[in-house]
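Board notes (copied after class):
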Amino acid sequence: MSEQLRRQVGDHLRGVLARAGISGTALAKRMHVSQPYVFRRVAGQTALDLDDLAQIAALTGLTIRELLPDGLLDQHFDNPSSTQD
């Protein structure tokens, strides 16, 4: 994952968490990880993995798609020319 993409995802996730009233510290406690672990991912310093996203989604009641910026999945993963018959 590129630095730009990590930051884009982190920025969006920060907004989602703020709207849900969940601080980074509270999220870290709920995830049973350190606060720096969460900070590095939300700041875009370290890439979130699917396990992180699934856990955050479960804790917030949101879908993984809702945790990601609008259009991100379509832009980066829905490429019909890359499918094989």
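Comment from the instructor: The helical segments are 3-20, 24-31, 35-42, 50-60, 64-67, 72-77. The chain has a mean pLDDT of 87.
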